[in-house]
């Protein structure tokens, strides 16, 4: 087990290195740079700027310099916001994105799994139809449409919650609903189909043949088996929720990380693009790793060597 | 002798998206106390469905349309769920075909056997239950039982898993054990061990056994009486020795002729039954075996033969060949006639 964890950690570093290299390459392939303007800068100014940020160095050297900064957890200065570093962006943005993500995650889990279970147990009946109809809407309607709809009804018309900002706890309600809509629908559908499949397995028939109550058959024999596919997709879902959504954060004016992610790309803010991508990648890889470890706990057939 | 189980004119239909499938079409049979009844038939003959409906384990699409299943005088088809649960596992236990998929992969086998005890006696303490589980695993000859108690199904071989299933089934000392092809998924040598074990346990505990299989050879080793099923109907019933000595139904004759023998003359070839079983989504009007039968007559394709009793009630057979009511002018070579015209 220890050897396995060490191996995985090493693999994670390799993955991260590849992600960094790929992002770096793609970023420099795209025409334009952080100092490209509508109005051309005088060549001397441009040269001075490039010299200041070491953009005149050969690319391999720039990459190695970036890596050495990464080792010291120094993501470099932002090219666009003078005086700010990429670390500042993450430090100021992640608490908001993380808190919103965590709340959404809890809400998603509490809603989607019971929804999926109920739909599976009422397979083909109106409860199933209703829940799966909602889930289909949730998967297909984009989050910004849900967000604007919610804003219009709950905040503007009814005035139950503030329209933007998260100074008050009520401010989190709509963002959580809008951000979680897709994940809830997706996980509820997965939970339903997984449970339905498990309920048709031979060992469920065995459990019934033992004379167990239907509740016990479901709780003890079906649910844990049905959760395995759900846990699989949980890793990427957690990472996605916690690192923030540009759209939701923009609509509800939440000062999270999402905005930096998108703006940095359009502005060719090299260090911010790199920093955000590497941060997200590291987060995602860690979550997938945690999920794999969690597997051991629920499925004895999986053993890591 | 007293009957443990009495199945009377049982009809079971599966209502599927592709139409209704009448899998069991009027089955009558009984199981006497402590006897071992063999039920033989091809896939789709309705043998498993008949006995799954005894404990009402047919799944969401299967439905018992009419008929009675009397267990010690109580009709299981009309029993309330709470009472039925006491019968399931407690009085009638089942062992299924595939021991890998029939055990929950996420629970230690000891827990799964113990759960059977827990389900039927909540007063049993945890320690007593554990002791009894150990005793049961030893009874089915699982080596190093105390170590394997906490093992998971995937750590067991096929034969060992089936032993676990048997231990679980016998945990509450049931009156009847329904074994649905328990050796089909196993190697021949393991098959033999499991049969030996079942025979020994039956002698020890006096449990009635229904042994469902498509293998007449296996039945010969274990059972005293045989039911032959085809197309959702009972074709023939006979004591084991008589069935092998003088099979009455052409289907039984065909089954026996298709068993390979180790002493068999090399020149004599195996005689498989030609054709395939009927499509049960469109059950035939007459005898389901008629299209494959070498003795087929016109009446066979029109009406199912009544089940006639022979040997003072010990045997029965549903075939026009043995029926005095069969029309005398019927052409016995109907099936061989090219045009198939009635003379």
Biggest sheet statistics of chain A: none
Structural class of chain A: mainly alpha
Largest sheet of chain B: 8 strands, mixed
Highest-level CATH class of the domain at 93-255 in chain A = Mainly Alpha
The CATH homologous superfamily of the domain at 93-255 in chain A is called: MetI-like
Largest interface: A-B, 22 and 31 residues
Spatial separation of the terminal alpha carbons of chain A: 6 Å
How many strands in all of chain B?
12
Number of helices of chain A: 12
Share of helix of chain A, binned = over 70%
Mean pLDDT of chain A: 88
- Tell me the structural class of chain B: alpha/beta
* Percent helix range of chain B: 25-40%
Order of helices and strands of chain A: HHHHHHHHHHHH
Per the CATH scheme, the topology name of the domain at 93-255 in chain A is MetI-like fold
Q: What quaternary form is this? A: heterodimer
What is the total tally of β strands of chain A?
0
What is the name of the CATH architecture of the domain at 93-255 in chain A? Orthogonal Bundle
